[in-house]
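Lab notes, practical 5.
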Amino acid sequence: MKLRKSMLSASIVAALGFTGVTMAQETAPVAQSAAASQDATDLDAVIVTGIRGAQEKSLDTKRNAQSHIEVVTAEDVGKLPAHNVADTLQRLPGVSISSSSANEGGFDENDRVSLRGTSPSLTQTLVNGHTIGSADWFILSQTETVGRSVSYSLLPSEIVSQAIVNKTSQAKFVEGGAAGSVNVITRKPLDFANQISAEGSIGAVYSDLPSSTKPQVSGLFNYKNDANTFGFMAQAFYQERELRRDGQEIVGGFSTISATDPVAATNPDLIGVMYPSLPGSAYFTQTRERMGGLIELQAKPTDDLTLGLSAFYSDMDAKNYNRNYMLWTGNFVPRVAPNPGYVIENGTLVKADYTGAVDATGAPIANGIYDMISRPESAAKTGYVTFDADWNINESFALKTQVGYTRGQGETPTQNIAEVVTGSSGGGWEVRGTDNTVNWYLNNPSGPTTNGFGTWGIQYYDVIDRESWMTADATWFGNGGALSSLDFGVRYADHTREVNSPFGSDPGDIAGALAGAPTGTYPGDFGSGLGGSFPGPGVWYFTQSALEQAVKNNSTVRKDGARHNYGSEFNINEENAAAYVQANFAGDKWSGNAGLRYVNISQDIQFYRGLGNDATITPDVSSLFGNFLTVRQNNKHDRVLPSVNFRYDFADDLILRLAASQTMTLPDYSALAGAVSLSNLTHTGTSGNADLDPIISTNFDASLEWYFTERGLLAASLFSMDLDNYVRYGTETRALVNDQNGQVENYEITMPINSDGKVRGVELTYEQPIGDYFGISANYTYADGEADVEPGSDATDALVGTSKDTWNLSAFFENDRFNARVAYTYRSSFYHGMLRANEYFQDDFGTLSASFGWKATDWMSITLDALNLNDPTLSYYVADGHPQAFYNNGRQYYLNFRFKY
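Output from the prediction step:
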């Protein structure tokens, strides 16, 4: 009999952090095709019951895999641990997550995944082995930090059959994940055990901070014929959730009093001293409404040919309103002397009080400023369509092909912004380190007012991310001997990322329309989870609808080119052609693979460069945003990426794995494009660098796994990544147009540059059953990363996303009817990136979650999941040791009734 790839028995349910009720799976989990799997193993049908059975099968799969992987599997619709794939993956060793991709601050739902102490952009996310168009609802994620990571907020757990984390590479893997990859696998119709299957979930989520309850509904229907030659599956989901985030932000960071400032004459001891710029009480609310579905068709015209059609769509409306009530320190600190008793520590004015003052004309000097920013139509959507064919030509040869198209879109049709000045009777602050909020106050603030009214940003932004591809993957099966099979194939992809802002509106008398408009107030418990003393409860704001109507009815839409924001636009097209060959070996107690992947990439980068005051160059295009020169650049990159994986079984329960590879990731889109994004309030911005080279990572991995008992594991891994052309950031000053006043002004611009970096780390895993009904799981990851910086540079040598310490601990109980699990996850501080020309970090934090389940009948179960039970505060600080921001999102409780037929 000629040798074929072994089909490894496993339907995997992740033991780490599993929070749902587990019942007997009536579907036979997916037998993975190469096009649908970045895993080294194919999975056969196994029925799994309960947490304990799931844990056992999960460890069996890990034990039998040919490379270093981690796996999470959902038994039933929506039964992944937690309610977001990213939240679940964080409980695996070596996996970290974050809740933002730009500078929007921390939220309760994490949606970016990174591996082994690296940036999320270095981790590739695939669906069924192919790419998926990425999209974000937040404007800075759309225009300022446009990475290659995928937002998991658009990937509901309902669609997921498995999520496979590949920690070592193989030649047949799609390139793009320098640190590794996550492959989200959906269900397939012919893999269900019964001819007709139906599953559903009806429930609600209660968010305690906004005191809101919203519906969560999902359903699945699957049909296949008796001959198992045709199958159809349809899934649908609708989920709504209210968010409220209480925050304190030091919007302008810490500014420095200069020798030319008026206060230097009266208080020379303040020269060179830093002070908090724009400490504010930030009140953010949002409604997230996500809906969509998945359709799968499979047909087997013959026993050797399987055809498949897959279509997925997810659409999230993300209406949001952010209010930030700030102490306008930059308006009075440089020119007004503080009251006696101020305190300077380590070059920072940590405590100061001020009384009201007037300027040279006798006009009162304002002490407060207030921004209200409404984005009522923010949205993100993604989807894909694929057609694939799996043909077993004969016993020695198999061919799998796929063609597909994916498109993601993030959209901000408008921003309704009101900025007003408030209070002129003085104020003050007290800085209390990076672990505590800044105490601050404003004397006699104004009530509802349009004093000093300003607005900007009434602009349309549309971000498109699309790709079409085709693949052909073949396998030749050996006739015995060490060479068990040979994989080879080709892939072609055409990818485009574009940011468009073709029109906007000229503001009219918005201030007049807001005079006497309806107002609301901050909730009475605002900031109670943050600690400290600062304005909040009772602070007024214009209602979101009032602000929307005032802007809409008193603005003139300009589609004549006058409001074309060329400086924010870019278009990047990438054509990617790849070919690979991989030899798979097997012997007595050992197995492995070795291969080469050749990648050829052509980049066409187009953007607009602002000319500022430069009148010596004739602009290509002009608008109210200034004069611009069209820049177009072509880059070509080609690379051979080698990989080797080796496995040796010292015994049935003791396995050694060794791996070496080179992997590649292209720089973030916004890092490549020269488009500029500005903040007028702080006179900072970001820009790109079209000359950036791809990041090349040279990786080594060694792991030892001891399966000391049924459902028991003790494992240790060592890993190393040397990152050539790692992207870090520097700053420069540029003269650009302020779109609020039309003047050319200086901005401090952050831009990316190539450097080098490295990560070294250790992973430890322990899983232990305790008696018949209890068990514990624990893992710890240590990652030490650093980037190369120039000698004498003040820049940080930290890598984005590197937490030195990450650990998870969970325990469960389960019998035939009831189950419960509690899990705690901890992550130490890490470098987040650049914020308004400052290097900033997220402080360490931990989250506590719990789940309870009751199997009421064979066809119904009830689950209660509680997330963020410890009500964590997410804290951020800048590299010089000053606080930056603090956020509190409250707790979330999910109650679900699950049905299956």
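Observations recorded by the TA: The chain has eight helices and 49 strands. Confidence is low (pLDDT under 50) at residues 1-48.
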